[in-house]
Amino acid sequence: ATVSEPAQKCCTENIQPFLASILEELMGPVSSGFAEVRSLFDKEVNEIIQDFQKTNDTTKLKENVDQLMNLPFNSVKMEPCYLKVNLLQELLQDLKSRFKVYHIDFVIQRTQNFMQELMENAVYTFEQLFSPSRQADSAKVATTLEKVKLRVLK
Predict the structure, then answer these.
(1) Domain carrying residue 137
(2) Ranges for the Niban 1/2/3 domain (predicted)?
(3) Is the pTM of this model over 0.90?
């Protein structure tokens, strides 16, 4: 009871007025990182679609989709996504001094983990939605690939 009132007053006066601007500042790098994940998924699936349209090779298509499943674990391809979030390091330094925010690396690492999870979910969903259509004729497969990609991106 003795701590509650001063703590609420402190939060109301010293923290709450800044929360919206802090959130807005932090969301810039986070949003651009997740947008990069979306863009990478889109690019990779487009390459699969283009390769299939050129070759009509279902064996190669299966290999490409299997490779897509490894995308979340491909650090080279995921690196541009992770780099977008590294901008948080600079933004959080200011917060660290003003609000005693610690464990900046943890915040960045968790954000990057969520990005990897998002990519895992995207490729898994893509594979699950596309899998039943693999045996269709070539014209339908290319159309299905595009539809599945758009569905996952939605």
Answers:
(1) 3-153
(2) 9-154
(3) no
